[in-house]
Design goal:
By secondary structure, the chain is of the alpha/beta class. It is built from nine helices and twelve strands. The protein has two domains: about 30 residues, no CATH class; about 290 residues, Ribonuclease Z/Hydroxyacylglutathione hydrolase-like (Metallo-beta-lactamase, Chain A, 4-Layer Sandwich), CATH 3.60.15.
Length: about 325
Protein backbone atom coordinates (compact mmCIF):
# COMPACT_ATOMS: atom_id res chain seq x y z
CA UNK A 1 0.00 0.00 0.00
CA UNK A 2 2.86 2.39 0.78
CA UNK A 3 4.35 1.81 -2.68
CA UNK A 4 1.00 2.41 -4.36
CA UNK A 5 0.43 5.58 -2.36
CA UNK A 6 3.91 6.84 -3.27
CA UNK A 7 3.28 6.19 -6.97
CA UNK A 8 -0.01 8.08 -6.73
CA UNK A 9 1.85 11.04 -5.28
CA UNK A 10 4.45 11.00 -8.02
CA UNK A 11 2.14 10.43 -10.96
CA UNK A 12 -0.96 12.27 -9.74
CA UNK A 13 -0.47 15.19 -12.18
CA UNK A 14 -0.20 12.77 -15.09
CA UNK A 15 -3.26 10.83 -14.02
CA UNK A 16 -5.26 14.02 -13.43
CA UNK A 17 -5.89 12.70 -9.93
CA UNK A 18 -5.56 15.53 -7.37
CA UNK A 19 -3.36 14.61 -4.45
CA UNK A 20 -6.05 15.71 -2.04
CA UNK A 21 -8.40 13.09 -3.46
CA UNK A 22 -5.85 10.32 -2.89
CA UNK A 23 -5.26 11.50 0.65
CA UNK A 24 -8.99 11.88 1.27
CA UNK A 25 -9.62 8.24 0.39
CA UNK A 26 -7.53 7.25 3.43
CA UNK A 27 -9.59 9.46 5.76
CA UNK A 28 -13.03 8.82 4.29
CA UNK A 29 -15.65 8.87 7.04
CA UNK A 30 -17.71 5.69 7.09
CA UNK A 31 -21.32 6.05 6.00
CA UNK A 32 -24.17 6.52 8.45
CA UNK A 33 -27.77 6.09 7.25
CA UNK A 34 -30.13 8.99 6.70
CA UNK A 35 -33.28 8.42 8.76
CA UNK A 36 -36.49 9.81 7.27
CA UNK A 37 -38.32 11.59 10.09
CA UNK A 38 -40.96 13.47 8.05
CA UNK A 39 -42.19 13.77 4.47
CA UNK A 40 -39.23 15.86 3.27
CA UNK A 41 -36.81 15.78 6.23
CA UNK A 42 -33.95 13.38 6.98
CA UNK A 43 -31.44 13.16 9.83
CA UNK A 44 -28.10 11.37 9.98
CA UNK A 45 -27.87 10.53 13.67
CA UNK A 46 -24.25 10.56 14.80
CA UNK A 47 -22.88 8.55 17.73
CA UNK A 48 -22.78 10.10 21.19
CA UNK A 49 -19.48 11.17 22.73
CA UNK A 50 -16.67 13.58 22.06
CA UNK A 51 -14.77 13.81 18.73
CA UNK A 52 -12.22 11.00 18.57
CA UNK A 53 -10.29 8.66 16.31
CA UNK A 54 -12.96 6.00 16.91
CA UNK A 55 -15.82 8.14 15.60
CA UNK A 56 -13.63 9.86 12.96
CA UNK A 57 -14.72 13.22 14.38
CA UNK A 58 -18.37 12.61 13.56
CA UNK A 59 -20.84 12.91 16.45
CA UNK A 60 -23.53 15.47 15.58
CA UNK A 61 -26.87 15.17 13.75
CA UNK A 62 -26.67 16.58 10.22
CA UNK A 63 -30.10 17.02 8.69
CA UNK A 64 -31.42 17.81 5.25
CA UNK A 65 -34.72 18.78 3.67
CA UNK A 66 -35.48 17.87 0.06
CA UNK A 67 -37.53 20.68 -1.50
CA UNK A 68 -39.05 20.94 -4.97
CA UNK A 69 -35.95 22.62 -6.39
CA UNK A 70 -33.06 21.62 -4.14
CA UNK A 71 -31.74 20.48 -0.77
CA UNK A 72 -31.37 22.48 2.44
CA UNK A 73 -28.71 21.04 4.78
CA UNK A 74 -28.61 21.77 8.51
CA UNK A 75 -25.30 21.34 10.39
CA UNK A 76 -23.17 19.39 7.88
CA UNK A 77 -20.73 18.15 10.51
CA UNK A 78 -17.23 18.55 11.86
CA UNK A 79 -14.88 18.18 8.90
CA UNK A 80 -14.42 18.09 5.15
CA UNK A 81 -14.83 14.31 5.12
CA UNK A 82 -17.91 14.35 7.34
CA UNK A 83 -19.46 16.87 4.95
CA UNK A 84 -18.65 14.57 2.03
CA UNK A 85 -20.27 11.67 3.88
CA UNK A 86 -23.40 13.78 4.35
CA UNK A 87 -23.48 14.53 0.63
CA UNK A 88 -23.18 10.83 -0.17
CA UNK A 89 -26.34 10.19 1.82
CA UNK A 90 -28.14 13.08 0.12
CA UNK A 91 -27.21 11.76 -3.32
CA UNK A 92 -28.67 8.35 -2.50
CA UNK A 93 -32.07 10.05 -2.31
CA UNK A 94 -31.97 12.88 -4.83
CA UNK A 95 -29.93 14.41 -7.61
CA UNK A 96 -31.09 17.92 -6.73
CA UNK A 97 -28.42 20.49 -5.83
CA UNK A 98 -27.81 21.84 -2.36
CA UNK A 99 -29.20 25.38 -2.31
CA UNK A 100 -28.82 26.39 1.36
CA UNK A 101 -26.85 25.39 4.45
CA UNK A 102 -27.94 26.45 7.93
CA UNK A 103 -25.33 26.30 10.72
CA UNK A 104 -26.91 26.29 14.18
CA UNK A 105 -23.99 27.75 16.18
CA UNK A 106 -20.26 28.45 16.45
CA UNK A 107 -19.09 25.04 17.72
CA UNK A 108 -17.14 23.49 14.87
CA UNK A 109 -18.40 19.93 15.24
CA UNK A 110 -21.59 21.23 13.59
CA UNK A 111 -20.39 23.39 10.70
CA UNK A 112 -16.86 22.61 9.49
CA UNK A 113 -18.47 20.31 6.92
CA UNK A 114 -19.40 23.52 5.05
CA UNK A 115 -16.19 23.06 3.07
CA UNK A 116 -17.51 19.91 1.41
CA UNK A 117 -20.84 21.51 0.52
CA UNK A 118 -19.31 24.57 -1.11
CA UNK A 119 -16.76 22.37 -2.86
CA UNK A 120 -19.61 20.48 -4.56
CA UNK A 121 -22.15 23.32 -4.81
CA UNK A 122 -20.39 26.70 -5.05
CA UNK A 123 -23.69 28.59 -5.35
CA UNK A 124 -25.12 27.26 -2.07
CA UNK A 125 -25.97 29.95 0.48
CA UNK A 126 -24.29 29.41 3.87
CA UNK A 127 -26.48 30.89 6.62
CA UNK A 128 -26.01 31.44 10.37
CA UNK A 129 -26.56 33.78 13.30
CA UNK A 130 -24.70 37.09 12.75
CA UNK A 131 -22.76 36.60 15.99
CA UNK A 132 -21.66 33.15 14.82
CA UNK A 133 -20.32 34.71 11.63
CA UNK A 134 -18.57 37.48 13.59
CA UNK A 135 -16.94 35.09 16.05
CA UNK A 136 -15.80 32.74 13.29
CA UNK A 137 -14.21 35.63 11.42
CA UNK A 138 -12.56 36.85 14.62
CA UNK A 139 -10.61 33.62 15.14
CA UNK A 140 -13.01 30.99 16.48
CA UNK A 141 -12.93 29.20 13.13
CA UNK A 142 -9.22 28.43 13.49
CA UNK A 143 -9.70 27.46 17.12
CA UNK A 144 -12.22 24.82 16.09
CA UNK A 145 -10.30 23.41 13.15
CA UNK A 146 -7.30 23.01 15.45
CA UNK A 147 -9.36 21.48 18.25
CA UNK A 148 -11.00 18.94 15.94
CA UNK A 149 -7.63 17.93 14.53
CA UNK A 150 -6.16 17.43 18.02
CA UNK A 151 -9.14 15.50 19.36
CA UNK A 152 -9.10 13.13 16.38
CA UNK A 153 -5.29 12.84 16.39
CA UNK A 154 -5.04 14.36 12.93
CA UNK A 155 -7.99 12.55 11.36
CA UNK A 156 -9.67 15.82 10.29
CA UNK A 157 -6.44 17.38 9.00
CA UNK A 158 -7.02 19.27 5.77
CA UNK A 159 -10.36 20.69 6.84
CA UNK A 160 -10.65 24.39 6.14
CA UNK A 161 -13.18 26.63 7.87
CA UNK A 162 -15.67 27.94 5.31
CA UNK A 163 -17.54 30.63 7.22
CA UNK A 164 -21.20 31.40 6.47
CA UNK A 165 -21.85 34.70 4.72
CA UNK A 166 -25.62 35.12 5.04
CA UNK A 167 -26.84 36.29 8.45
CA UNK A 168 -30.30 35.22 9.66
CA UNK A 169 -32.34 36.86 12.39
CA UNK A 170 -35.00 36.13 14.99
CA UNK A 171 -38.36 35.12 13.51
CA UNK A 172 -37.05 35.29 9.95
CA UNK A 173 -38.81 33.02 7.47
CA UNK A 174 -37.66 32.03 4.03
CA UNK A 175 -39.27 29.74 1.50
CA UNK A 176 -37.50 27.65 -1.09
CA UNK A 177 -38.91 24.89 -3.26
CA UNK A 178 -42.26 25.01 -1.50
CA UNK A 179 -40.78 24.54 2.01
CA UNK A 180 -40.78 27.26 4.68
CA UNK A 181 -37.96 27.59 7.21
CA UNK A 182 -38.66 29.58 10.37
CA UNK A 183 -35.59 30.85 12.22
CA UNK A 184 -35.57 31.22 16.00
CA UNK A 185 -32.58 32.92 17.61
CA UNK A 186 -32.76 32.51 21.40
CA UNK A 187 -30.58 34.95 23.33
CA UNK A 188 -27.75 33.83 25.63
CA UNK A 189 -28.55 30.16 25.13
CA UNK A 190 -26.11 27.28 24.48
CA UNK A 191 -23.39 29.35 22.79
CA UNK A 192 -24.87 32.87 22.41
CA UNK A 193 -24.66 32.32 18.63
CA UNK A 194 -27.58 29.92 18.35
CA UNK A 195 -30.39 29.44 15.90
CA UNK A 196 -33.13 26.83 15.88
CA UNK A 197 -34.90 25.98 12.63
CA UNK A 198 -38.54 25.01 12.23
CA UNK A 199 -39.34 23.17 9.00
CA UNK A 200 -42.92 24.37 8.95
CA UNK A 201 -44.61 21.94 6.56
CA UNK A 202 -42.96 18.93 8.20
CA UNK A 203 -43.58 20.04 11.82
CA UNK A 204 -39.88 19.54 12.59
CA UNK A 205 -37.62 21.68 14.78
CA UNK A 206 -33.82 21.45 14.62
CA UNK A 207 -32.70 22.68 18.05
CA UNK A 208 -28.94 22.67 17.63
CA UNK A 209 -27.20 22.11 20.96
CA UNK A 210 -29.89 24.00 22.88
CA UNK A 211 -31.34 20.51 23.36
CA UNK A 212 -29.52 17.17 23.59
CA UNK A 213 -30.86 13.66 24.06
CA UNK A 214 -28.98 11.29 26.38
CA UNK A 215 -26.03 13.65 26.46
CA UNK A 216 -25.04 16.59 28.68
CA UNK A 217 -23.74 19.60 26.75
CA UNK A 218 -20.83 21.85 27.57
CA UNK A 219 -22.16 25.26 28.55
CA UNK A 220 -18.93 27.21 28.74
CA UNK A 221 -20.15 29.77 26.18
CA UNK A 222 -23.79 30.10 27.23
CA UNK A 223 -26.15 30.50 30.17
CA UNK A 224 -28.61 28.27 32.01
CA UNK A 225 -31.30 30.95 31.98
CA UNK A 226 -31.01 31.42 28.22
CA UNK A 227 -30.83 27.68 27.57
CA UNK A 228 -33.97 27.03 29.60
CA UNK A 229 -35.75 29.81 27.69
CA UNK A 230 -34.60 28.25 24.39
CA UNK A 231 -36.18 24.94 25.40
CA UNK A 232 -39.41 26.74 26.28
CA UNK A 233 -39.37 28.47 22.91
CA UNK A 234 -38.92 25.16 21.10
CA UNK A 235 -41.75 23.53 23.06
CA UNK A 236 -44.08 26.43 22.22
CA UNK A 237 -43.81 25.57 18.52
CA UNK A 238 -45.65 22.29 19.23
CA UNK A 239 -43.75 20.46 16.53
CA UNK A 240 -44.14 16.75 15.99
CA UNK A 241 -40.39 16.01 15.72
CA UNK A 242 -37.46 17.62 17.54
CA UNK A 243 -33.93 17.02 16.26
CA UNK A 244 -31.38 17.60 19.06
CA UNK A 245 -27.80 18.62 18.37
CA UNK A 246 -26.73 15.18 19.60
CA UNK A 247 -28.79 12.07 20.30
CA UNK A 248 -31.92 10.63 18.73
CA UNK A 249 -34.81 12.63 17.31
CA UNK A 250 -37.90 12.55 19.54
CA UNK A 251 -41.01 14.50 20.53
CA UNK A 252 -41.43 17.49 22.85
CA UNK A 253 -41.00 15.24 25.89
CA UNK A 254 -37.31 14.98 25.07
CA UNK A 255 -37.00 18.79 25.06
CA UNK A 256 -38.79 19.02 28.41
CA UNK A 257 -36.52 16.33 29.86
CA UNK A 258 -33.41 18.27 28.89
CA UNK A 259 -34.94 21.50 30.18
CA UNK A 260 -35.68 19.78 33.50
CA UNK A 261 -32.01 18.85 33.91
CA UNK A 262 -30.91 22.47 33.57
CA UNK A 263 -33.75 23.89 35.67
CA UNK A 264 -33.26 21.33 38.45
CA UNK A 265 -29.52 21.88 38.56
CA UNK A 266 -29.89 25.66 38.58
CA UNK A 267 -32.51 25.61 41.34
CA UNK A 268 -30.41 23.35 43.58
CA UNK A 269 -27.27 25.42 43.01
CA UNK A 270 -29.27 28.52 43.98
CA UNK A 271 -30.49 26.80 47.16
CA UNK A 272 -27.01 25.66 48.12
CA UNK A 273 -25.55 29.06 47.28
CA UNK A 274 -28.11 30.81 49.47
CA UNK A 275 -27.07 28.44 52.27
CA UNK A 276 -23.50 29.71 51.95
CA UNK A 277 -22.00 26.72 50.17
CA UNK A 278 -19.18 27.03 47.62
CA UNK A 279 -19.32 25.17 44.32
CA UNK A 280 -17.19 22.21 45.46
CA UNK A 281 -19.09 21.94 48.76
CA UNK A 282 -22.45 21.62 47.01
CA UNK A 283 -21.46 19.08 44.35
CA UNK A 284 -22.77 15.97 46.12
CA UNK A 285 -26.14 17.57 46.85
CA UNK A 286 -26.54 18.82 43.29
CA UNK A 287 -25.47 15.45 41.87
CA UNK A 288 -28.17 13.77 43.95
CA UNK A 289 -30.82 16.14 42.57
CA UNK A 290 -29.92 15.37 38.95
CA UNK A 291 -29.08 11.70 39.48
CA UNK A 292 -31.69 10.68 36.88
CA UNK A 293 -29.21 11.91 34.24
CA UNK A 294 -26.07 10.24 35.56
CA UNK A 295 -26.11 7.66 32.76
CA UNK A 296 -26.06 10.33 30.07
CA UNK A 297 -22.93 10.83 28.00
CA UNK A 298 -20.82 13.66 29.43
CA UNK A 299 -22.50 13.72 32.86
CA UNK A 300 -19.35 13.09 34.88
CA UNK A 301 -17.25 15.41 32.73
CA UNK A 302 -19.69 18.33 32.76
CA UNK A 303 -21.39 18.27 36.17
CA UNK A 304 -18.64 20.05 38.10
CA UNK A 305 -18.27 22.62 35.33
CA UNK A 306 -22.02 23.18 35.24
CA UNK A 307 -22.15 23.81 38.98
CA UNK A 308 -19.33 26.35 38.79
CA UNK A 309 -20.94 28.06 35.79
CA UNK A 310 -24.29 28.16 37.56
CA UNK A 311 -22.67 29.83 40.58
CA UNK A 312 -21.06 32.44 38.32
CA UNK A 313 -24.41 33.03 36.62
CA UNK A 314 -26.14 33.51 39.97
CA UNK A 315 -23.47 35.96 41.11
CA UNK A 316 -23.86 37.98 37.90
CA UNK A 317 -27.62 38.46 38.34
Amino acid sequence: MKIIHTLCRVFAPLLFLPLSAADAAENMVRDYPADKIAAHTYVIHGPLGEPSVANQGFMNNPGFVITDNGVVIIDPGSSLEVGRMVLRQVRKLTGKPVTHVLDTHIHGDHWLGNQAILEAYPKAQLMAHPEMIRKAQAGEAEVWTGLMERLTQGYTKGTRAVIPTVAVTENQRFTTGGMTFHIMAPENAHSKTDIMIEVVQDAVVFTGDNVLNQRIARLDDGTFKGSIAACDRAIEVKAKHYVPGHGKTADAGMVKNYRDYMATLMAEVQRQYDAGKSDFEMKDAVAAKVSAYKGWSGFNEQLGKHISLAVLEIESM
